[in-house]
Please model this.
Amino acid sequence: MQHFTSVQDITDWSLLWQKVQQVKENPQGRKTFGAGKAMCLIFLNASLRTRLSTQRAAMNVGLDTVVFDINQGGWQLEMADGAVMNGSKAEHVKEAAAVIGSYYNLIGIRAFAQLNDRDEDYQETIIQQFKKYAGVPIISLESSVRHPLQSLTDLITIEEYKKKERPKVVLSWAPHPRALPQAVANSFLEWMPYTNYEVVLTHPEGYELSDEFTQGIRTTNNQREALQNADFVYVKNWSSYRDYGQVLRTDDEWIINEDKMLLTDSAYFMHCLPVRRNVVVTDSVINSSDSLVIPQAAHRVTAAQTVLELLLDHA
Ligand code: SN0
Model:
């Protein structure tokens, strides 16, 4: 695997699952695998799980890590090729990425969608420019469009908890006071065709995701119908793709509560976190024994370590 920025970067699925198994069984088993190598994690946005789990995964393989909050202390980077740089941006990504790539064997980067200009966000410019200019493997720590480390985590979690060969997995939109990116939902759906799960997507009108991710995915605007007999309920808010970056409704009709979970086949509740309690999901559901949010978050280390081991072969 050369980079890890989308599901399409996975070249060998059987090797991936073999690694996941090895990492789960013995996370400390390859303590010196990354020895002598180092990774730079660049954050343009806040993070708890991605930052800490990726560092923990690196420790487990003996890889040194530096975290760079580029907005605090770094130069503002110009991303556009051919730009006349007479404004506030002091350095071009062409130099910055190449320089960081000369110091580090791997680069991770988090750059959320700005939610102003859809075309610009959906070009994933920052991650693409780093890919182009860094000369080392790039790991997406959530781009403007995708969050593949989260999606791998989600699959690892579902595989671990599923009680049926072909579980019904529902991705449900939920309310939120702020406009959030579509990345987690996009990415989750992008990984689904690589499973045999029965997948249903449900959201209110106006919250349709890009066709690129929903093609072939059963979709309904009826949340209760979607939840019938579900085995896993994955809940996430996203802002509108159609009315780009807009919050179209502020009511609580789509909250996940106990009453809705009763429609399922004793489904597990999943969320990538951070979650707004009693807005997205009621305390009673997230506190219940069917809530997987903590083991799911714990598997962020499993996912990151698996990815690091696959990439280190090329780093
Ligand atoms: C991010 C998102 O993409 O939705 C990261 C999720 C892994 N979530 C948020 O930004 C939540 C912020 C908030 O105010 O609740």
Observations:
- Residues 293-312 form the longest helix (20 residues).
- The mean pLDDT is 98.
